[in-house]
């Protein structure tokens, strides 16, 4: 592809990404993969370059742009080499006309910047939300040690905080590697490993991972438990939960039972665990403001109405989870968001309406204190953004 054709491809892709963000359609990564699956003429260098352009344009645009061309023009304004590709050549974009619209720059839509600022983030922390994320893996302590994996993986370094984490150069193909296929490692951001560790899972315990998704944290808990005890992994999303079984098999995690829940009937379907769990992990559905480094177009999709629905879902899962915890047991609440509305405010509301429950220090001592919990953010900790709180049930 010529440089101009690459710019045009980025514009076409951005058109699809903008439309999908406006209508709740597929994620940018999915759309990029689909786009190239029907364009075999694009070689690996072309794909990489187009992908880079697309993500540069998404990061640059704080709010949803009018179209892909406006998003790429905003990038071209800062990059003369890209501006030069708007040359009207075959397969390239038309020359830039006077007064063409540009995507608005910024970290996020104004209402979200306001909410994040009110949640205590300064300009440096805000800007880091859309940086590039590192590539972290978690070693599976059921099968190996960090030292052994570091020895086998050139250019790997230990992550600074999580004892099970390893950082790899971006773009390292993890999933095709022998270590991944043998179940020795999983892709998991260091921050996610740190908040998962706040469960302090012990061998022999009975634990519930209420919002298990595809089981990233379930596998971490099973490893911390040394495969001893009982671990129930639940979710209302069949497709996500189905991905857990093959991952568990690969990881040699044998104590996991998966249970698909029907929305609205969760407590009924978990009646056999009511009041029995030593601990419940709630990795709640959230806006994902802490993971914009990986999905920067997510900030175009969030609306105040969607946020309000997520807050209601968070209170609901807190309620369901609390009903499963035995007297004196613990509940760990996590969101990968830095908005107080989803983190510290939710925990404060829960504590106010559940007499006898008390907040506990998050162990190991991670992050920055926020309300009744701790927070991790990309600028301060180099991880994705998370809020985590540990709550103790009355005896
Ligand atoms: C942040 S994701 C979980 C990620 C997962 N724990 C991991 O480490 O990869 C939140 C999950 O909560 C699930 N969820 C939403 N409402 C739920 C409910 N009422 N009961 C159980 N799971 C729910 C969603 O389907 C989603 O998979």
From TrEMBL:
The keyword RNA-binding applies. One of its GO terms (biological process) is RNA methylation. GO terms for molecular function: RNA binding; RNA methyltransferase activity. S-adenosyl-L-methionine binds at residues 235, 283. Keywords: Methyltransferase, RNA-binding, S-adenosyl-L-methionine, Transferase. The active site is at 336 (nucleophile). SUPFAM superfamilies: S-adenosyl-L-methionine-dependent methyltransferases (SSF53335). It comes from the Bacteria. The keyword S-adenosyl-L-methionine applies. Residues 118-394 form the SAM-dependent MTase RsmB/NOP-type domain. It holds the Pfam family Methyltr_RsmB-F. InterPro entries: MeTrfase_RsmB-F_NOP2_cat (IPR049560), MeTrfase_RsmB-F_NOP2_dom (IPR001678), RCMT (IPR023267), SAM-dependent_MTases_sf (IPR029063). Belongs to the class I-like SAM-binding methyltransferase superfamily. RsmB/NOP family. This is RsmB/NOP family class I SAM-dependent RNA methyltransferase. It comes from Sphingomonas zeae.
